[in-house]
Design a protein that fits this description.
Blueprint: H1 5-18, E1 42-43, E2 52-59, E3 69-77, E4 87-92, H2 100-114, E5 119-124, H3 141-148, H4 158-178, H5 188-201, E6 207-212, H6 215-225, E7 230-236, H7 241-245, H8 250-271, H9 284-297, E8 300-302, E9 305-307, H10 309-319, H11 326-340, H12 346-360, H13 373-384, H14 391-404, H15 408-413, E10 440-447, H16 453-462, E11 466-474, H17 483-495, E12 504-505
Parallel strand pairs: 4-5, 4-6, 6-7, 7-10, 10-11, 11-12
Antiparallel strand pairs: 1-2, 2-3, 3-5, 8-9
Amino acid sequence: MHIRIRGLVAALAVALLGASLVVTAPASATPQGPTVPDLSWQPCGPAFPGVECAKALVPLDYDDPTGERTTLQLARIPAADQANRLGSLFINPGGPGGSAVALVLFAGQFYADRLQGRFDIVGFDPRGVLLSDPLQCFDTNEEEAEFFASQPVFPYLPQQERPFFDAYNEFTARCLTHGGDIRPHMSTADVARDMDLLRRAVGDQRLSYLGLSYGSFLGNTYANLFPDRIRALVIDGVLDPRAWAAGAHIVYDRTSAQEVLEEFFRLCDEAGRPDCAFAGPEASQARYERLAEHLLAQPIVLPDGLYTYDLLIADSVGAMYSTFSWPDFAVFLDFLAAASEGAATGDQAGAARAALHDKLTAAQDDRSLYFNGFDAYFGNHCSDAEYPARFPTWSDVGRRAEAASRSGPFWWWFNAPCASWPTAEDRYTGPWTARTSGPVLVVGNYFDPATNYRGAVVNSQLLPNSRLLSYAGWGHTAYGLSECATAAMDAYLLDGTLPARGTVCPANPNPFEAATDRSGGSPRQVGLPPPWLLRPTA
């Protein structure tokens, strides 16, 4: 399901401005804390029938709860079954930097239908993200792309490391200068505090929440800050909060994508041709390794530029997010390997790559709105996580990550802006062991390229009132991908029924088999890679 996100979200921004959406003065303050926003819900506009929007004023700095404020954008689909309404379900797609407003606009009805119309499906863009006082480090996305154009996706040659590190820290300096008042106040702890105010604003005594990917860290933070305020909390695609806050998640990231890629090769060989175009007389993994070594030595010429080793790794990581893209990735690899061997043209490989990217990204047809997912990722993550400051340490960890897998350095070097980005004073670093009023359902996929299954296991061990639900298949997050796992999450959200201890949902059929429905029945914007991961050729 492909959606023109830029055009539609830009249309939403215009509609909200045209409607003069009211930001109502907050209700009276309590002696103990900040005021609760008064939400004035209005139609989001003709492009979004049935969806309502509102804005909320919340403290910019919770250390000064009656001081300066920042504005949050919300969207909701009201419960269809008002007679049996359970309250509001807050959803977050991850990132960090992902727009929960966009998730409601484009996939909210899927969640509403799955949950029998008994929840208001509510999303808010976290502070600093897209429609909520966005952090903006450049004037335009084109200026941002030009700034990074001379840098690889990650340094894969020793001589690239220092220029890459310096460029990404120059980006940090730019964000610190141009980021505005929101920049020092983008920690997940502040987002969790915002969510608690919004919970009160919608009238819920306790929170119902579904957090995907980084949304698991937001849910985990909320659970530990406000453990007595939880009705039902699901975290799907789970980060180890200790490693994430310490800037040490590379201990998981260095192998996560490689583990899924090896499954891709196994299932490709098992399916064979014609179902997997990359299958053949030679084992697919051996052919891939030969292609990677070729690209380390020399790039391949495609119609739009040079295809280099770092692009192969980024495309490989991106393709592992969703099994829906695997057949297209196999076609691309087949043409690319053939081009490296002189048996196919760069035009064929270029067309196959375009088809792959079309599967992994939503079409973007409007550049009038600055999309700040890249900026917001660092605004949030670098506020939360403490990374080393010195280049030699970055280089050393990068080498160790490379020893673990080809994708290890990609995950490590991408966070280089955090070397000089100050952590937020009010970030939350633990403990992560609170006993919550309602149980936490922790969901992990055995083969997830971005949130390793071990993160789910760790969370289920840290949280004393939690239950682990496992999916034995492939892809990033399980909701909407595994019917077994999705039904278990639905049952828990609706009536508190937890899956039996030790429940493992079986893997879906081989994604390469022609008869397999690879869509999982859901609009798969959720579980796709961030758009900035898939870079154009140089």
